[in-house]
Amino acid sequence: MEGVRPGGGPPAGGPGSGSGSGSGSFPSLFPPGLHGIYGECRRLYPDQPNPLQVTAILKYWLGGPDPLDYVSMYRNLGNPALNVPEHWHYVSFGLSDLYGDNRVHEFTGTDGPSGFGFELTFRLKRETGESAPPTWPAELMQGLARYVFQSENTFCSGDHVSWHSPLDNSESRIQHMLLTEDPQMQPVQTPFGVVTFLQIVGVCTEELHAAQQWNGQGILELLRTVPVAGGPWLITDMRRGETIFEIDPHLQQERVDKGIETDGSNLSGVSAKCAWDDLSRPPEDDEDSRSICIGTQPRRLSGKDTEQIRETLRRGLEINSKPVLPPINSQRQNGLNHDRAPSRKDSLESESSAAIIPHELIRTRQLESVHLKFNQESGALIPLCLRGRLLHGRHFTYKSITGDTAITFVSTGVEGAFATEEHPYAAHGPWLQILLTEEFVERMLEDLEDLNSPEEFKLPKEYSWPEKKLKVSILPDAVFDNPLH
User: pTM (2 decimals)?
Assistant: First the structure.
């Protein structure tokens, strides 16, 4: 449960309390982490010392469900000269270390990130006659914060979030999010580390797909050029009825398509509903088989395998570096890429990832023939994987959300892969690598063209390349949701 109340700080007082009494006890009443963030808010809004605030009634560190202690809501007059409309500006408190006493975040010093290293912001266009900010963005921010706390994965500018629902639970087309640096708020140095501010930007499904196929930063730059779609400060308008590509078709044809062709995609992997079968193994060879079959119990990834797949996903985000699949014993490097604040947990780690098979006993096997299985949503990303990643000398990983299965497509330009041109299909436990030559990728793109028109799709759908001993099936979700199917 959350409550809305006016106030620029905790109930005990805040920077805007204006009271000189009790100043000696100020530090204990107003924690330094909070003080640093409020100071930046006061810099922007000196005339709003006590904004409306959504507060978690039962704090997270007392067992409550909401990780954010507070979400402050300010009225921003915009900037007519820059064609920035009036809007509501939301700022979260709780992803960073507010207290410095280990009640939520481990204190790691002043030089690194405070807590997760960032707070969320959101800018919502103010409707005519609206006298108070809507509170639904606060719950949206709590939802993102719950994901961060539960997964211990951080966000960074350019990331996208597939939400698949109108952000305000209306009929709006704004159903997904991109993340970028807040245009006004500057990083804050607190006694517990540095805090940056990441702004949530609401986008349409078509814009999310473009960000996946190209990159988030490119789409954010396009949104900045279209005033009704965000403008320079990337303000979300939940009433926006057109995508930027409907407003200006040239953006898709000239900017996005050219960007994909030139840059490729920086999406190096997704969590997905997927599976694979080793067709070169006889079905009765249960003891040694590493095939991942619906209805059977797969062998689980060891911690080191999980670590390598995680690195596969993250290293692919470095667009300008030579793609490398790190060795199995690579040192752990947290964070979604090397420019991000450290993540405190592997994005692919799960409670079941503990090694139930000693890592040294799992040998890498060359396979003669494989069958790949995807649900429709995952299958629709195969052309992106081929065109946006492999044709640019990169790799792309599908990590199962229902088990420890992983499928990594690699190009001949990727170093460190255990799949080779001589043996293009190789497995290490339940992790499959598939090496595809450029010539074969071009052919697959032609054969898989109908994946770009999901509305005309009928399931199940099968594609086969007998001479390559490769089969791909697009199956209903129920196949993956029901292991006994």
Answer: 0.72
